[in-house]
Design brief:
The chain is α/β, with parallel strands linked by helices and about 550 residues long. It has two domains: about 325 residues, 3-Layer(aba) Sandwich (Aminopeptidase); about 200 residues, Glucose Oxidase, domain 1 (3-Layer(bba) Sandwich). Helices cover about 30% and strands about 20% of the residues. It is built from 16 helices and 22 strands. The strands form four sheets. The chain has a 15-stranded mixed sheet that branches. The protein has a three-stranded mixed sheet with strand order 20-19-22, covered by helices on one side. Strand 7 and strand 8 form a beta hairpin. Helix 10 packs across helix 15. The longest helix has 19 residues. It is globular, with a radius of gyration of 24 Å. The protein starts with a helix and ends with a helix. About 5% of the residues have low confidence.
Length: about 550
């Protein structure tokens, strides 16, 4: 192993000495020191296994946000940081950054009906027909509002796209599609890759900004990239939100089944398939349906605090130590559902005890290494990812270092413990000035960079690195591809499909002794070198010119 990594370092140094990025950041950074190499070698898959086994144990009850198990997980991670000799950079000299939240649990007394101008009232059954939360954080809200179909609900001036046009949607409920207009043109909504405009979070935000009182997102497997089971499990029981800060919110932030939407539209004398087809063009105009949403929404409101867990390894350079490389991974999952029969603990072994295991092993390797990098290294295990990237959103707004002085965020989320990988996914890295170092490092690790296997799913906008990108920090996640040593690509794709269909956000996402954490350790080593290199560059990393996050980066470094 030592000979392999010595060759890796020599190869990286030769490549770096001959290259420079278009942004002017030289890649001719010093070769990682022998001490860095020694720290890298200590990264061990069995230590990652031990963390995953504990964090996904039934005793932690699924690590629910604002629940006992989640708090235990945070304390466990803080304890590990302390054992590694890292500096606490949370609140009041601790490792914990308090995140003010509100838990909202829909009450069984809630009624939710679609009422056509003529015909029968459609009284919907929660979880089977719809899911909905009152984002206004009130114990009771009443909705009696007309429904307007707004296609994808997108206003994107850079693509000359406006589903709203001159339609006044104040006080109305908006029926809309998930995802975004279909395209193979990378210059139009980035082609097959989903942009943030296609995410349900954007659609809720935009509707609320325009004064709507509710949104009904139409669920379709192909558009959402996951089945109704995922929607139901992610939107049942208590759901957490950041404490209100004056941003407009919806009384009814809802999903409805495709069949419910079809019945509603057909009852209005229209054809849903035609409306969906019409929404594919720039000429689309919103359609007022002769129907209302009538709902009386009761919610249990529980203010609470959850915690991000943050530690720092101060840098060695007197000037550059005031800048940092950030590693992130969320520790929360979906908790326990007492009302469910049978196995009702959402253990979240893959999602995301694996990412936490990698983060902790990185923290140990850096913290116990004989030499510190030039820039400081931050480690943040965040809360509330499954609730809508809440912990990382709060971290982005309240970072331990100013965002302009955080050169890079490397995030770990849901790394399948399937063996030795021959590929790595770094979707979003190509949008940064750091990408050529990523390419060189992947080559020396003998890893093929695999394009996002499902760009239509918008994975870049579904994990915590996105929250850091929104405040300008160049950010991306590191994960395995689908090709593993001893298996063909078809095998990897089959494992991916089986996990998504049978275990993702299910109680069956559990630790098993036969899991192979070799790949998780490889991803940790890969990220270790990337972080060390980012900590050594003479300038902070930037987004490529024209990227959607470039403006935020330029503002943050002013």
């Amino acid at each position: 192993m030592r000979k392999t990594f010595l060759l890796f370092f020599l190869g990286l140094a030769v490549f770096a000495a001959s290259q420079a990025t278009p942004k002017g950041i030289p890649l001719a950074v010093p070769r990682p020191s022998p001490a860095a190499f020694q720290a890298l070698e200590t990264i061990n898959p069995e230590r990652i296994r031990a963390h995953v086994r504990f964090l996904s144990h039934d005793l932690l009850e699924g690590r629910g946000t604002g629940q006992r198990g989640g708090d235990i997980a945070a304390e466990y991670i803080a304890t590990q940081f302390a054992l590694y000799g890292l500096k606490p950079v949370g609140d009041n000299g601790t490792y914990l950054q308090k995140v003010p939240m509100v838990g909202i649990t829909p009450s069984p007394e809630t009624t939710f009906s679609l009422v056509p101008a003529s015909g029968s009232r459609m009284t919907l059954k929660v979880l089977d027909d719809y899911v909905s939360y009152d984002q206004t954080q009130q114990p009771q809200s009443d909705v009696d509002a007309p429904i307007v179909y707004v296609g994808y609900g997108i206003h994107a001036p850079e693509y000359s796209w406006d589903d709203y046009k001159d339609t006044d949607v104040r006080g109305k409920v908006l029926l809309m599609l998930v995802n975004e207009p279909a395209s193979d043109d990378p210059k139009f909504f980035k082609g097959k890759a989903l942009t943030y405009y296609g995410r349900w979070t954007y659609k809720y935000e935009e509707a609320a900004r325009r004064g709507a009182v509710g949104v009904l997102l139409i669920h379709q497997n192909e558009m959402a990239s996951y089945p109704w089971e995922v929607v139901r499990n992610s939107n049942s029981g208590e759901k957490s939100y950041l404490k209100l800060d004056g941003t407009p919110k919806l009384k009814a932030a809802a999903w409805i089944q495709l069949g419910v939407a079809r019945k509603l539209v057909n009852g209005a004398g229209l054809n849903l398939e035609k409306l969906m087809s019409d929404a594919q063009t720039r000429e689309f105009k919103a359609v007022a349906l002769p129907a209302k949403l009538q709902a009386r929404i009761f919610s249990k409101i529980r203010p609470f605090e959850s915690n991000n867990v943050i530690a720092e390894l101060p840098g060695s350079d007197p000037k550059l130590k005031n800048e940092a490389v950030l590693y992130t991974a969320h520790y929360d999952h979906l908790g326990i559902r007492p009302e469910m029969p049978g196995d009702n603990i959402y253990n979240g072994a893959n999602d995301n005890a694996t990412g936490c295991g990698v983060l902790l092993e990185l923290a140990r390797a850096f913290g116990q290494g004989a030499q510190k990098p030039r820039r400081s290294i931050l480690f943040a295990s965040v809360t509330g990812e499954e609730q809508g990237l809440l912990g990382s959103e709060y971290l982005g707004k309240h970072p331990p270092f100013p965002a302009g002085r955080i050169t890079l965020d490397l995030n770990y989320d849901d790394l399948p413990p399937l063996g030795s990988p021959e590929e790595v996914e770094v979707s979003g890295a190509e949008r940064t000035s750091f990408y050529r170092i990523v390419e060189a490092t992947a080559k020396d690790f003998r890893l093929t960079i695999r394009p996002d296997a499902h760009p239509e799913a918008g994975h870049f906008y579904r994990s915590d690195h996105f929250s850091l990108a929104r405040v300008g920090i160049p950010s991306f996640s590191i994960n395995e591809g689908v090709k593993y040593k001893g298996h063909d690509e078809a095998w990897g794709l089959q494992q991916d499909q089986e996990y998504n269909e049978k275990h993702y956000h299910q109680p069956s996402d559990e630790y098993r002794p036969d899991m192979d954490f070799t790949g998780d350790a490889t991803m940790a080593r890969f990220g270790f070198i990337l972080g060390w290199q980012a900590a050594t560059l003479p300038k902070v990393v930037s987004w490529e010119k024209g990227d959607e996050f470039e403006a935020a980066r330029l503002k943050s470094v002013e």
